[in-house]
Amino acid sequence: MILARDPLARLARRAVSGDRRAFTRLYRELHPLVARFVARRVDSRADAEELVAEVFRRLVEHLGEFDPARGSVRAWVLRIARNAVIDHYRTRKSPVALEVIADGLCELAGPLDHLIADERASRVRALLDALPLETRRLLALRYGDGLRHAEIAELLGIGETVVRKRISRAVRELRARSSGIEDDAPEVSHAV
Amino acid sequence: MPSEIDRLLHDLHAPRVEVPAADVELERDVIERFAARHEAATPRGWFVSLPKLAGALAAGVLAIVGACVLPTSYDVPLGLSVEITTRAELPHQAIAEFVREQGDAGEVDVFVRRQLGDHADEPQTQMLIRMWDQNLAVGELEHELREAFPDELREATIRETPLEGEVETIWGRRIAHRAFHVALREADLEQARAHLLVQLRAQGVTAEQVVVEVQDRPDGRREIKVQIEHSQEGELSLPLDELGPEARFVLHPED
């Protein structure tokens, strides 16, 4: 049962029936996810705050349309956030490709040098830049937005097993190609 | 424990700006929007709906009490009365048998009266037929009679009147009567009426129209009232218990 697997879906259902406490809990559960998702895609904190507010305004407006049979609440709200980001940049007529921004990839091509403290980080960044766009998108959703494999699969419309294998393979290659900077610890699924 | 590559991937994908923290004002604004959109049209739980629930319960109790005490009445169709008046001679037996066949009546009462008018050479015959538990509608029989007996009824006046019984009861019983398809069996009603008519005839009363009323009394007994309209009017009110067991009304489920 979909509702049984997704406690947020139960909250959403109660909220639709007018349960204010359920909606408050839903909001507090989703706020960190939305805030991080948006903060990775805009240039200023003011824009981030405005976009977070806009995402929740849209969530309230469309809450009754949420269908648990079609996916999780987290994936649904991230689609709302992604559309809000695209609309935000569309109004600004940004020269950067909207899809790249919406997927949270542009930061790797930009001014991140101040975050790169050492040579190892510099080398991994260079390896990331060389990866195919699809692989970079997967890694960004996993490590940047902190999404679960199933949520990434749902957002991108591919199988969860495919997501898991591609990310695992990419991390393994990064580890191998940056040998000397990597310990022997295996990848762990702590990105959630 | 996260590996070194995991830590690096997290760092490289860190947010570009500071992640907005939980904002009380935003939360209040979003919840107000939610309340305006979703709470207005939907119940918010027991505490809010209690007054409505109490109101509905009170209305329900009032309706039940009212149904138990408020009187009501409704008509029960019993049969058809046909009155034929003519100066000609009537084939009584043939007409009675024809009427019985046409209406598929459970019982037919026939009364024939020969009246002498102001002039001795102009006698008038009045034939009264009452059909109980039959299938004909009012006005349906006259045409059939005139077609079957064209010569005898050419100058006759035919008048058809429905025979109805009025049941006086309380609303609760009437609602139960409809809801549970419990019907007052007309045959039993007729049986009681016929018993009364026998008594009335013994007293010299002839009836043209009979109205039967059934009334439940507070002491549990059922009272039957029969009103007879004729050249002489009479009214009889007898407790059911005085009519004997064969006159008892029975409520039973319809088949």
Summarize the structure in words:
The complex is a heterodimer of chains A (192) and B (255). Chain A has 10 helices and no strands. With 192 residues, chain A is mainly alpha-helical. Chain A has 2 domains: 102 residues, RNA polymerase sigma factor, region 2, helix turn helix motif (Rna Polymerase Sigma Factor, Chain: A), CATH 1.10.1740; 89 residues, Arc Repressor Mutant, subunit A (Orthogonal Bundle). In chain A, helix 8 packs across helix 10. The relative contact order of chain A is 0.09. The C terminus of chain A is likely disordered. Chain B has a single domain, classed as Alpha-Beta Plaits (2-Layer Sandwich), CATH 3.30.70.2040. Chain B is built from 7 helices and 9 strands, in the order H-H-H-E-H-E-E-H-E-H-E-H-E-E-E-E. In chain B, strands 2-3-1-4-6-7-8 form a 7-stranded mixed β-sheet. In chain B, strands 5-9 form a two-stranded antiparallel ribbon. In chain B, a hairpin with a 4-residue loop joins strand 7 and strand 8. Chain B is elongated. Chains A and B meet through helix 3, helix 4, helix 7, helix 8 and helix 10 of A and helix 1 and helix 2 of B.
Keywords summarizing the entry:
heterodimer, A: 192 residues, mainly alpha, Rna Polymerase Sigma Factor, Chain: A, Arc Repressor Mutant, subunit A, 2 domains, 10 helices, 66% helix, disordered C terminus, B: 255 residues, alpha+beta, Alpha-Beta Plaits, 7-stranded mixed sheet, two-stranded antiparallel ribbon
What number is the mean pLDDT of chain B? 71
Q: Kindly, what is the distance between the CA atoms of the first and last residues of chain B, rounded to a whole number of angstroms?
A: 79 Å
Number of strands of chain A: 0
Described by its quaternary structure, the protein is heterodimer
Total beta strand runs of chain B: 9
Shape of chain B: elongated
SSE class of chain B: alpha+beta
Largest sheet features of chain B: 7 strands, mixed
Provide the spatial order of strands within the biggest beta sheet of chain B. Answer: 2-3-1-4-6-7-8
Number of domains of chain B: 1
The succession of helices and strands of chain A, N to C, reads HHHHHHHHHH
Helix count, DSSP H or I runs of 4 or more residues of chain B: 7
CATH topology of chain B: Alpha-Beta Plaits
